[in-house]
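Deliverable D5.2: sample structural annotation.
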Amino acid sequence: MLAAAACAPAQLTAEPHASNGSGSADSAPDGSVWVANEAAGSITVLDAATGEHVTTLEGIAAPHNVQATADGRSVLAVSGAGAVVRIDAEKLSVADHARTGRHPAHVVEDLHGNVYVTTAVDRRVTRYTPDLRRDIAVELVGAPHGVRLDQSGRVAVVANTGGGSLDVVDTRTGAITGRVRVGSSPVQVAITPDADRAYISVAGTREVVAVDLPSGTITGRLEMPAAPAQILLVDDVLLVANQGTPDRPGDTVSIIDIDEFIVLGSVRTGSGPHGLAADDTGRVWVTNAFDDTVTAVDVPSRTALYTVDVGASPNGITFSSTTPSVAPPLMPLLLPHAIAHPEDSTHSH
């Protein structure tokens, strides 16, 4: 078992999404928001406080997911060309890169700086050292997509899209310690810090499923208004991006109380909300995959603050506490040709 197209600078819009709610720009911390524009082959960097465009990075083919490191100094991105790339968040330059398997989907980092990448076609979760050297690969039955770690970094939960399951991995040994059948086409997972409970979005049944991890049993199901994509645990609430499909797109993020496992309400976004990222003030950013925008949301007041244009088919999104240095509107990232030009790099989630 162990084993590109250019993107125009973002524009703020005052659509019905906009609001003068309690989440003002001066309540947001300094930092940046990074958006993986999969169809554009670019990454948009936004000012976290204002939503203004900082730069667009070109050169990573079909980036599906991005993840800022805990110290905010780096942003990890997976490329549809079969690679994971570490970008210096201040200098906006490539620090490291490594080959992955085919169709890398998601990337996360543990407390020690180790990096985990899911590869759907190769059916693996692979751990890399902080300098992106391959360490351990765990083979799964299906097609792993979303992945999250508990607070200790010892437990990884995986949304196995092809297997219709939530898989649990011991990151110390690479052993699969649990598998719970949840339904057709699970997309992403969330896990409580103590690894006691997990939640998983299931696009095929339009549900969010709650799982008790010690017993491996399903404790609840909630139907969503559209097929859910990413989910994110923020304190005691679970946020759900209700993406839907191109012919029946969703346009809301649902807010779930995890203790009662009930829907508290929702916030309007753009068309096809997909990715979610949060800072520590209650501000959340949502990628809208079907209208190429990002919406900023204030969770405490349940209001949408603004919507900003980004690149084509925005998917993954992350918040970094680092503010980049002054940059031109477009910046190329210097990478090997094979990473910048994939043969086949399409994703369905």
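Annotation notes: The longest strand covers residues 249-257. The helical segments are 337-340.
The annotation will be released with the project's public dataset once the embargo ends.
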